[in-house]
OmpA family protein
Amino acid sequence: MTFTKKAGLVGAIGCALVAGQATAADDVFINPEWANSAWYVGGNVGQSRANIDDVRLIRSLTANGAALTNFTADEKDVGYKLYVGKQLNQYFAVEAGLFDLGKFGFKSTTTQNGTLNGEAGFRGANLDLVAQVPLSQRFSVFGRAGMNYAKATTRFNGNRLFAVTNPSPSERKLNAKAGFGLEYKFSEALALRGEVERYRVNDAVGNRGDVDLFSVGLVYKIGRPAARPVAAPVEPPPPAVVPTVAPAAAQPPVEPAKPVPTSEKTTFSAEALFAFDSAVLRPAGKASLDELLGKLQGMDTDVMITVGHTDSIGSNAYNEKLSLRRAASVKTYLVSKGVDAARVYTEGKGETQPVADNKTAEGRAKNRRVTVEVVGMRR
């Protein structure tokens, strides 16, 4: 397959994924459970490099007293792969795929007008175990190890074919493969991968070597987002009971009701306030905070505490900083609406105070939250 066809194939896949992502972008950012979906698909394209056994070929060509006058090897081509994966848990997945590593060849001439040209191509299927370690909400590194079942198709031509035993051999072999790479999430549904892989292969003429594939590609998570968490409503206080005055007799003046100490706590889904991996308040998040301020009318506020929380994806240090930035963003907005900055405090708890199991998508959604606690006197 030519470079144009291969690039076009992966490009078409990329366009389809991006189009699907664009239509569902709002839902993805509000419900980032797609990244924890059990299934995903992807495609990579890049440059492949093979090791051709030059020494053995030259030895065959110079048999019978002939001298080699020219030998050139083409050890690079365009390779690609398509794959489907199943996420076993946060750190491990199994991937199965199809690959085409391209074609590699050589051209040679000898004295006595001898020529021999050859070409070998490799394609097949693979099954890998993938281990992934998150570095942050967007970046993660991964490594893979598995097996590949490749078909090697080799063809020779020229007037020195006696140097090889079969002009068109083919062979299928099961060999090992391994690799490593870096993944960057555009969103919880779509990610970019860059990776390096080594395929162990047989070339159908008795040689065993390696083909390396340096590639980039797109990964698309398949699944349904979890139901959107809704901020817990703030219960209004019971109405004050005012004693009735008997019409016939004078009554002593009724003292106004004394302020009642109260503490009210509201929990917001982080995705309802912010976009993925962001501490910038969304318009919907501002509307939610405006609604909270409306319910606090009539309260003399002593202290407001905003606390950010995350799930366990990403490092502890990154999650703590992200939760603190989100809590500070909520404070900034509340102050812009007239709340005294000296009465608002912020905390970032990161992933240290989960309210649900981080092993499930539903649990992680509950753990990504921002709480606002208000302490004051309600009249």
